[in-house]
Design brief:
By secondary structure, the chain is an alpha+beta fold. It is about 15% helix and about 35% strand.
Length: about 170
């Protein structure tokens, strides 16, 4: 079988292109520090959120020096609590669940973006450094009012932050 030189060149270039694509995907999934969503958040009975201490009253809690946990419930067509308020120069871990349908949880302008599945707890961590207001969006179609499902993450100066403002205590 005789293969023309141009065919050999295109065959080699095609193989190099395939190897390049595979290398790019492997590098992007392992080397750049992007964490895939996992099941470390655990599961929950989505029909009994009011019986779970974490989600019966969605809120923000201080858990360490400049570390906070936000327990968020995404339901048709709201996020609770809303707004979520945290101080600047802190790390916030969001624990998000849903009692009804699939939702998305995206903090616009950060790397926090995940799917919220009923019966599962989605865990995301975000570092917020300067006072700013971020939008929170549902980016999974969840029903007729999906386009209105939004919230706010308000990062306030450290000296103005009082725990309790975000959950109306």
């Amino acid at each position: 079988m005789n293969i023309h030189n141009y065919e050999k060149i295109w065959l080699v270039l095609s193989m190099l292109l395939i190897i390049g694509f595979i290398s790019t995907v492997v590098y992007g999934a392992t080397a750049v520090g992007i964490e895939m969503v996992n099941d470390e958040g655990g599961t929950i009975d989505s029909t009994a959120l009011d019986e779970d201490d974490r989600f019966s009253e969605p809120r923000v809690e201080k858990v360490g020096e400049d570390e906070y946990e936000a327990y968020v419930v995404a339901r048709q067509f709201i996020f609770e609590p809303n707004p979520i308020e945290v101080p600047a120069n802190s790390t916030v871990t969001f624990y998000v669940t849903s009692p009804d349908v699939l939702h998305g949880f995206e903090v616009v302008g950060t790397n926090a973006n995940a799917m919220v599945v009923p019966g599962e707890i989605t865990e995301l961590t975000v570092e917020v450094n300067e006072p700013k207001e971020y939008g929170i969006l549902c980016n999974e179609y969840c029903g007729g009012g999906h386009h209105t499902m939004e919230g706010k993450l308000i990062v306030v100066p450290e000296d103005e932050f009082e725990l309790g403002d975000s959950n109306d205590e």
